[in-house]
Amino acid sequence: MNQLEAPLSDYELTQAIGQGAISGIGDLYERHKPKVYSVCLRMTGNMSEAEDLTQEIFIKLLGKAGSFRGESQFTSWLYRLTTNHVLMYFRQAVRRRERFPYLEDVEATHGLKVSFGAQFLDRIAIDAALARLPAGCRSVFLKFDVEGYNHEEIAGIFGCSVGNSKSQLHKARRRLRKFLL
Questions:
Q1: What is the pLDDT of residue 20?
Q2: How many other CB atoms are found less than 10 A from the CB of residue 170?
Q3: Is CB count within 10 Å lower at the N or C end of the chain?
Q4: What residues have CB less than 8 Å from 128, skipping those under 6 apart?
Q5: pLDDT-derived band of residue 166, with 50, 70 and 90 as boundaries?
Q6: 121 has a pLDDT exceeding 80
Q7: CB within 8 A of 97, min separation 6: which ones?
Q8: Measuring CA to CA, which residue among 105, 122, 176, 118 is closest to residue 145?
Q9: 122-148 b/e with 16+ CB inside 10 Å = b?
Q10: Which ranges of 8-160 does DSSP label H, i.e. alpha helix?
Q11: Strand, coil or helix: what is 86?
Q12: Residue 137 has pLDDT above 60, yes or no
């Protein structure tokens, strides 16, 4: 790329990937890996799983990139792709334990047993609590605490003041604590 050329937008990269130019996945990976990893880590609570899931999501993105229509922000679309992938990962883990219960005993004897059930139930409770939040509070909470944006970026995205962003975040956290206790 020429130094004078502007980098391609996320939408342009996804469309190019959708048409077979897979080299654009590297740019998307560099731009969005920290946020995808952060979401995976928050959902799993395990660094190793979060790293593996982040890689899987970008591999999955190769096949799904062409389906991004640009009607929303790419980060919102990628967040949904990420959360859906991690939730499917949890469901598959639960199904594996249901189909192969004897493996739990093997895992326990080697000290490798991990409680996915509790994490999955926590995730369901958090999703239900988030759904009860007013839209403004929920949007700011997700941008700040889940996706890692700062208040200045959030204010720019939603066209509000930094103080409003901070106020919405405070309200969201207070209500979530109330809902989850």
A1: 82
A2: 13
A3: C
A4: 179
A5: very high
A6: no
A7: 103, 104, 116
A8: 176
A9: ebeeeeebbeebeebbbbbbbbbebbe
A10: 10-18, 25-44, 47-64, 74-99, 102-109, 116-132, 135-141, 151-158
A11: helix
A12: yes
User: What are the backbone dihedrals phi and psi of residue 175, each rounded to the nearest 5 degrees, phi first?
Assistant: -70, -40
Q: How far is residue 69's CA from residue 32's CA, in Å, rounded to a whole number?
A: 18
Of 40, 52, 39, 9, the residue nearest 27 (C-alpha): 9
Residue count of the chain, please give it. 181
What are the b/e assignments for 12-48, b being 16+ CB within 10 Å? Answer: ebbbbbbeeeeebbebbeebbeebbbbbbbbbbeeee
Please state, in angstroms and rounded to a whole number, the distance separating the CA atoms of residues 181 and 146. Answer: 20
**CA–CA gap between residue 158 and residue 2 (Å, rounded):** 33
Greater confidence (37 vs 128) lies with 37
Q: What class, spelled out in words, does domain 10-97 have in CATH?
A: mainly alpha
* Tens-place pLDDT, residues 65-117: 878 888 888 888 999 999 999 888 888 776 566 655 554 544 444 444 445 55
